[in-house]
Specification:
The chain is α+β, with helices and mostly antiparallel strands. The chain contains 2 helices and 3 strands, in the order ααβββ.
């Protein structure tokens, strides 16, 4: 992962990559120290009835660290009661 991101930077001057993925890739990126910020939108409704993917799944990514402390760096209430929170790992 690190070498792929370094290649993007070297070849195309890419400095920021947004990742909208499931828990496995997010866990790999976090465990590799490749995440500068975590951005989460919380919507004011509940759904259920089927399993949903998680945003962090260290077991599926074969990572032993089950907990990563986060520091809140931004929070904002948006239209329709959506809450946007951003954290630094």
């Amino acid at each position: 992962m690190r070498s792929a991101l370094e290649a993007l930077n070297a070849r195309y001057d890419v400095n920021v990559v947004r990742v909208d993925s499931g828990g496995t890739l997010n866990s790999v990126l976090l465990n590799s120290g490749l995440v500068d910020e975590i951005s989460v939108l919380i919507h004011p409704f509940l759904t259920g009835g089927k399993p949903d993917p998680t945003i962090f799944d260290p077991l599926k990514a074969a990572i032993s660290n089950l907990s990563i402390p986060l520091e809140l760096c931004h929070s904002e209430v948006l239209d329709h009661g959506i809450i946007w929170v951003r954290y630094i790992p």
